[in-house]
Amino acid sequence: MGSCFEAGSIAFYGSIEEERIEMKSLRNWLYAIAVVAVVFGFIPAPADALEKIVLGMPVKPPPLVHLPVYYAIDNGIFKLNGLDVKVKFFRGGVATYRAAVSGKSGLDMSWVPAPIAMLGISKGNGQRIFHSMAFLFEAQLAVAPGIKNAKGLRGKTIGIEGRGGYSHTGAIAVLGPNGLTDNDVKYIKTPPPARVPFLVNKKADAVLIHVEQVLLAQKLRPGVTSVASLWKYRPKYMYGVFMARNSALQSRRDVYTRFAVAMMQSNRSIYKDKAGFLKTARKWAKGVYRKHPGIMSQTYDEFVKARIWAVNNGLPRASFKWTNDFNAKRGKYKKGIPTYEQLIDTDLAKAALKRIGGSGGRNEN
User: Residue 1 — pLDDT band, cuts 50, 70, 90?
Assistant: First the structure.
């Protein structure tokens, strides 16, 4: 089947031959779709008619794995779906989660670490998961020169943002299979922007960081290596999810469905549009990467090879089962392990996938 992009309620398909043609730019592609939409009477709503969404995201500037959100903003994908998405940044995944459940942040939805979201839902936080743009755990455990493997971390200092956060749970996921626990290492509080500096300046012996950060650390401190790529080491560890208040998912159901559709469109486009991805990266990513454009290019290639971004709903049952078990083994669930259906608005996820024309050719069940 050819590629599919949906505007309003019309799905546009390209032939197999068209799939082979290199896209010159996403802008031209979207423009062509817009022209067809105008011809058929399906045009994006005017700015004052767009549904407004405030999305909470961890870390500014964003890591490259989060760029599908900003790619969708830059290329009008949200607007084609009748949405005006504004991003509100927080200092890491834990801070984003706390803001989302506080009721005072003004957030309509948030992107948070899956283990935290699942634990919070099990406690009755009133939220529910409805989509994921990346379910594979995009992170590497980078270590100082001289540390050969994960077992070599015994007695060493690991930089984390806080207990239970992305960097802490990721580190535990590597330590456990190597016979180590929290008691076998030392932790130092390391805000997300400080992780690379802490490793480079010898304040931490190891940090869990994104692919582009590992490449940067290796340039700044020769001898830095990665002892684990989490998407390979723990392939069923559920990385991140979009969640929202369950009451909002019911009252603004079509809005959240359109958001999920837009994210699938963005991810599917990025896999074909390296130039467009790099353009968004130059605009949104940390300035240091503009000085090292090869890092952004290399990171993109690694993501494509690993299929880091979801092309469908990004909510595989096997990943939720593994992550549920991971939480349970750490004694996090006090009221029993939540079911897949309790965690996820499955009807909304199915509706979004149907609206975009079905599966993008990858098994994410």
Answer: very low
Rounded to an integer, the average pLDDT of 194-213 is 97
Least confident of 16-20, 22-26, 298-302, 341-345: 16-20
Which two structure tokens, joined as six digits, stand for 144? 């100082």
Give the amino acid at 33.
Answer: I
What average pLDDT does this structure show over 82-102?
95
Counting Cα atoms < 13 Å in the Cβ hemisphere of 360 gives 26
Q: Is 22 a domain residue?
A: yes
| Among 175, 220, 229, residue whose Cα is nearest residue 195 | 220
CA pair distance 8, 50, nearest whole angstrom: 13
Domain membership of residue 295 (yes or no) is yes
Computed from CA positions of residues 99, 101, 106, 107, in that sequence, does the dihedral angle turn out positive or negative? positive
Quick: pLDDT tens for 155-182: 999 999 888 888 999 999 999 999 999 9
Highest mean pLDDT among 44-48, 245-249, 331-335: 245-249
Contact 156, 186 (CB under 8 A): yes
The pTM for the full model equals: 0.86
| Residue that finishes a domain, picked among 192, 216, 233 | 233
CA angle 125, 323, 192 (to 5 degrees): 75
Reported as a pLDDT band with limits 50, 70 and 90, residue 20 is: very low
Task: Name the phi and psi angles at 158, rounded to 5.
Answer: -115, 130
Integer CA distances (angstroms), 81 to 24, 131, 295, 316, in order: 23, 16, 32, 25
Spell out the long-range contacts of 22-28 with Cβ–Cβ below 8 A and sequence spacing 24 or more. Answer: 23/272, 23/273, 23/276, 25/273, 25/275, 25/276, 26/75, 26/269, 26/273, 26/276, 27/75, 27/276
Q: Which residue has the tokens 């806080």?
A: 162
Residue in 64, 37, 105, 116 with CA at minimum distance from that of residue 278: 64
Sign of CA dihedral 229, 197, 58, 70: negative
Q: How many Å apart are CA 196 and CA 217, to the nearest integer?
A: 6
Instruction: Give the 3-state secondary structure percentages of the chain, helix then strand then coil, rounded to 5.
Output: 50, 15, 35
- Which of 191, 210, 233 is at the close of a domain? 233
Considering the domain architecture, whether residues 343 and 270 belong to the same structural domain is answered as yes
